[in-house]
Amino acid sequence: MHEHKDYVTSLNKARKKRNQKMDPRYLLVLLAVIAAAGIIALAVKNFKKPVSGRAGGGPSGQEQGTPSEAEPAEADAEADTEAQVAEALSHFTNLGLIQVSGYVNIRETPGTDGTILGTIANGGGCEVLGTEGDWTKIRSGGIEGYVNSQYMVTGDDAKNLAREYVKLRAVITAKSLRVRQTPDDTNSENVVGAVSEGQRFEVLGQEDGWIQIEDGYISQEYAQVSYALDEGRKLDEKSMAINQYENLVMSKVTGYLNVRSSPEDKGNANIIGKMTSKAGGEILETLDGWYKVKSGPIIGYISSDPQYTATGQEAKDIAMQTATKKAVISTDVLNVRTEPNTDAKIWTQIVKDEKYPVVDDPNTPDGWIRIDLDSVDEEDGGESDSAYISTRDNNVEVRYVINEAIKFKPADDGSSSGSGSSGSASRRSQVVNYALQFVGNPYVWGGTSLTKGADCSGFTMKVMEKFGVSLPHYSGSQAKMGKKVTSANMKPGDLIFYAGSNGRVNHVAMYIGNGQIVHAASRRSGIKISTWNYRSPVAIRNMLD
């Protein structure tokens, strides 16, 4: 400041004169300069730090120059924040900090050919578990894997740098949580996206049970807020579904591709499974005209003809287009309710042998998901009851999956003799094998075409018609025909019936043996193979004997 410069100059001159001679006039000048400098300094201080927080003065009734009470409060807040930052860093025994422009991949094994499990961004923290060559094994954000060591700092350097990256963050605790445009869960139209368990986001604000993040608002009930470093993130769910395959093959057929026990076509004799259209698998070995694959629970052989199968980038493109979000059940039996709350009626049960399509319904509250069981007959309007399952007890994993092969052997109950023609197969085997030709074809409400589309009872009606059995086009009426059988003695070709929440039959499927059914399931799934108790059956009828 100019005033301070003038004061120092005058003081130096005064000292020089005093040394020559202590004239009283110089003393008077010196005192005047000191007083003036003090007045100026006080004015500057008050101008820079007004008591009221506004330049020029405080609120009415507050005396100018009174020490502000905000300063101790600010100091306390800073100390509290500093303590929380220290607490956040204390969770790491051996801290590693990513320093890179963008992010690095976390791989399953140490090397660029390792499967990518997730990513960790610049400033992300991790627990260092060890090193292998040029790679560091870490644990971060629930992911354990390897990152290239050149993108990481450790030790005291990491601790010192990390302080600037610690922010107030929300860690998601629900399996899946909707992000809303406004802090309002009564309006289904304001849903703008979803986040997954373990993901963390910088908190921009908090109000009335809601947390504001960059993309919108999330419910505070399903997030834990604290000061923390950013950490690793799993790949987006579709990429994760595809990334589990090192050498992906996808079925390109319209219906299904047979999986065989040996690399040769022996008709029905060596069929052990089926890959439906757009199903995927891992190529284990390439032979002349065949791929040895692992798909779902099956290891077997499929044709390598490019008109039937896709590999490389073509396979990845198909997989990205067709991977769907499904509920993967991890418990033997799970209740399905008509409404998303535990007071609602349990109207059926589902099993872990099936993966159930998830209906993206913005009205479904957090902690619940709506699944697609099947569509129903024309007489019932073509749509089944709303089916809700709870995700709160960790019995369900919601993720994108690619369809895979299912175990299957052509039906043959050994009830007939003869050889050399289709007549050698029993009537039941003929019925089942005929029905299976149409797997992959579309579901059409009210339809009766096995190729262009049928609903559940239209499908069973037309299949049975081929073998001289006349059935009405309604599952409820079909359930009254034939002869009642139990699950213990049911045979391929028997019809299995399922009911809605009102107890009335609304869906029908054909048993094909080996604990499986074929049915026109829904608009999403078309004609498909499922486990016979994919939901609780209410009746089984023999139409053939």
How does this structure look, described?
Mean pLDDT is 82; it is low at 1-22, 26-30, 39-66 and 415-425. The protein is globular and about 90 Å long. Helix 1 runs antiparallel to helix 2 (24-48). The protein is α+β, with helices and mostly antiparallel strands. The longest helix has 25 residues, at 24-48. The protein has a six-stranded antiparallel beta sheet with strand order 34-39-35-36-37-38. The protein has six domains: 2-41; 76-165, SH3 type barrels, CATH 2.30.30.40; 167-235, Roll (SH3 type barrels); 245-321, SH3 type barrels; 324-401, SH3 type barrels; 421-542, endopeptidase domain like (from Nostoc punctiforme) (endopeptidase fold (from Nostoc punctiforme), Alpha-Beta Complex). It has nine helices and 39 strands.
How many individual β-strands?
A: 39
Estimate what percentage of residues fall within beta strands: 35-45%
- CATH-defined superfamily of the largest domain: endopeptidase domain like (from Nostoc punctiforme)
> What fraction, in percent, of the residue positions are helical?
10-25%
Radius of gyration: 36 Å
CATH class bucket of the largest domain: Alpha Beta
Side by side, the strands of the main sheet go 34-39-35-36-37-38
Unreliable segments (pLDDT under 50, ≥5 consecutive)?
1-22, 26-30, 39-66, 415-425
CATH topology of the largest domain: endopeptidase fold (from Nostoc punctiforme)
Keywords: Hydrolase, Membrane, Protease, Thiol protease, Transmembrane, Transmembrane helix
Domain SH3b: 93-156, 324-393
Transmembrane segments: 26-44
Family: Belongs to the peptidase C40 family.
